[in-house]
UniProtKB/TrEMBL annotation:
GO MF: Rab geranylgeranyltransferase activity
SUPFAM superfamilies tied to this protein: Protein prenylyltransferase
InterPro entries: Prenyl_trans_a (IPR002088)
Keywords per UniProt: Prenyltransferase, Repeat, Transferase
Top-level taxon of the source organism: Eukaryota
Higher taxonomy: Eukaryota, Fungi, Dikarya, Ascomycota, Pezizomycotina
GO CC, any one term: Rab-protein geranylgeranyltransferase complex
This protein's name: Geranylgeranyl transferase type-2 subunit alpha
Biased composition (Low complexity): 139-174
Coiled-coil regions, chain positions: none
Reaction(s) this enzyme catalyzes, per UniProt: geranylgeranyl diphosphate + L-cysteinyl-[protein] = S-geranylgeranyl-L-cysteinyl-[protein] + diphosphate
Amino acid sequence: MEPHKPKPPVPPGTFYLQPLYYRYPFDLHRPLHNFPYTSSSRKLGSHDVERVQCTTNMDNHGIARVARTARTEEQQQQDLEKIRKYRQLDDAIREKTCRDAYDDPALFPLTSKLLRLNPEYYTIWNVRRRCLTSGLLSRPLAGSSPSRASPSTSPSTSTNPSSDASSSSSSAVIPPNPASPTTGRSGTTADAESASADADADVLRSELTFTVPLLLEFPKCYWIWKYRKWILEQAILRLPRPVASNVWEAELALASKMLVKDRRNFHAWGYRRYLVARLESADLLGRSLVEHEFAYTTKMIKGDLSNFSAWHNRGRLMIRVLNERRADGGARTTFLDTELNLVQDALNVGPEDQSLWYYHRYLISQVIGSEGNATITPNLTGGQKMSYLKQEVEFIRDLLQDFPDIKWPYEALVNYTLALRKLQPGAGGEGQEGDPKFWLSKLRKLDAMQTGRWNDVERDIERQLVGST
């Protein structure tokens, strides 16, 4: 093996570019990607600027990335000034946190300024949490049980290891909010409790509002999503149930807005599932939203057939939808037929779309069934299963007449003919269209780059056929 070669020296005046999602010109702490940049050479490492522009302009779920270009000397000086001010802001926050001055009125606005510059700085999100729990928020409601509090509501568990050093400063008594007209949750009158809850609701809504423009600019920043979850859990812990429910329901509108901006943002889809699960709990609405969410997946799929996340969410909801409808065997079969027709119509439009084939394969897995796993049609007979499989095999063969150069139909035929052979051993002779190896041979020719994978598939076919006899 050739010995590791040391990196060439970096010319004076070279800066290091941060990852794209930072939206900040230069790294403030360390070189993350080691892409040296100089205005004189107009180079990024061994790649020239034109090539970098080409790669950074690739679409990301339909959203064009910002191209990197060489910066002038004046722009570099402006960036250095920004870095100086950024470091001053960071130092001011660290100075206060080292003194455990989380109740300092000047600290909270400093976190707002820094997070607007760099929302990836997760330690500052933890500082902001400590500011809230150290005075800006009152104590939890007197009747709140510990089981209602999410693990993320505790400062010692919500913080990242990088901020553990500051966790020990948690006080047993949370100071009251100086701006609040009440004395917090320790008050003895109903008016004090109500005023304290109103003040907490205002603070929590203000925090949710603060993160909205950050999410719109940085929609895939983990720490913004995590912070919103923490704020919502505080609403459950501190606010009356009707008020907390309103706060949580309003979040569904935000999740919908984010999914309009990027229909396949997995952060937004995961956040939506989290919201629905908590809204359905006894802490909030206490009723099922499964029909509403199933209808939402239909809406999103009609807007974009390639929306893998919508198809995935639909698959996760189907069994529960049928169970809550108390569907009998006939209703379940009708439901399956409807879903198969839906995905067949989509495949006729976009047979090259991988997400459609994955959903189709999922539906067929519901037909075949597997031991120990619930399915949408648990009472199908062997004959009915074979009928469904033959119907789908015929549909795909017809599709191949118009689209012979797409590999996904062949992969489906390998799987479905294998399932037929296991249900009816001996059906389909060697080398014929009922033989999964026949379709595997087509795949080998169409996608020769994955020969190793197809070898593994062939061995797996042989193993399964031997096991079914």
